[in-house]
Write a structure and sequence with these properties.
The protein is α/β, with parallel strands linked by helices. Helices cover 45% and strands 22% of the residues. It has twelve helices and nine strands. The model has no long low-confidence stretch (mean pLDDT 93). Bound molecules: ligand C2E and magnesium ion (MG) (2 copies). The site of one magnesium ion has 4 residues, from strand 6.
């Protein structure tokens, strides 16, 4: 993996996130891939766990951040009148506890002349609640930079809804497993309704992840979910394809 990073075998794919109010793309999420010379395109589930174990997630995560910021900055330059686009980047636990994180992010934003609020960092719920106190301190420091923060995969970490209030974040992303139960299982609908209601009552933005059907989208709209992401709209795609999609929209 170390060699692959040096040889440039990693790719950043981008998945659009749609405003359910305006139907426009308001964000893109950067999702890493490994173009393995023998094994083909590998998904993050196949190598992120190992990267976290070995610590290689630190240079890999920084590379994803730099590459995605560079692309979004280029997009801004080429399309100065396009509506603002937020870039979401996933952070791992290892990155979150690393002392250089804040400085590295600040420098990357500066080098690409991106305003801090263009960047939304996603932290998985289980990471945020595992060590609430130190996570909250780190998140607070990140917020001091002016970047946006989102809790990813919400609903999978068994935290109570009241935890949301204690984390200095701007947004939550409801995990795909809940969205996929919408319309099939009334309990899932109740859970999603409750999450959206609580999140919005404390001023958080809500994204529904993994939307695949019209039914799921209709239900999320009815529950006033702010943003939607999923194969229904588009799969993650390479930079050229997302640029074409952005231009068209
Ligand atoms: P995530 O951050 O929750 O990203 C969303 C995942 O759901 C992506 O999987 C995306 O392709 C997938 N997805 C989106 N819409 C749908 C849908 O409608 N149906 C289904 N079945 N799946 C959908 P992907 O790209 O395989 O990434 C998996 C996870 O790997 C991510 O979950 C994230 O936790 C992690 N990851 C990806 N890139 C990075 C990275 O650069 N750094 C770190 N630390 N983690 C990353
Ligand atoms: Mg994510
Ligand atoms: Mg997620």
């Amino acid at each position: 993996m170390r060699k692959a990073l040096k040889q440039g075998e990693f790719r950043v794919y981008y998945q659009p996130i749609i405003s359910l109010e305006t139907d426009r793309i308001s964000e893109v999420e950067a999702l890493v891939r490994w173009e393995h010379p023998q094994r083909g395109l590998l998904s993050p589930d196949e190598f992120i766990p190992l990267a976290e174990e070995t610590g290689l997630i630190l240079p890999l995560g920084q590379w994803v951040l730099e590459e995605a910021c560079r692309q979004v900055s280029l997009w801004r330059e080429r399309h100065p009148t396009a509506p603002p686009l937020v870039l979401s980047v996933n952070l791992s636990a290892r990155q979150l506890e690393h002392p250089d994180l804040i400085a590295d992010i600040a420098q990357t934003l500066r080098e690409n002349t991106l305003k801090p609020d263009t960047l939304r960092l996603e932290i998985t719920e289980s990471v945020a609640i595992e060590d609430m106190e130190s996570a909250a301190a780190m998140l607070q420091a990140l917020r001091g930079l002016g970047v946006q923060l989102a809790i990813d995969d919400f609903g999978t970490g068994y935290s109570s809804l009241s935890y949301l209030k204690h984390l200095p974040v701007d947004a939550v992303k409801i995990d795909r497993s809940f969205v996929q139960g919408l319309g099939l299982d009334p309990e899932y609908t109740s859970i999603v309704r409750a999450v959206i209601a609580v999140a919005k009552s404390i001023g958080l933005n809500v994204t529904g992840e993994g939307i695949e059907t019209t039914e799921q989208l209709t239900q999320l709209r009815a529950l006033s979910c702010d943003l939607g992401q999923g194969y229904y709209f588009s799969k993650p795609m390479p930079i050229d394809s997302i640029s074409t999609l952005l231009k068209a929209s």
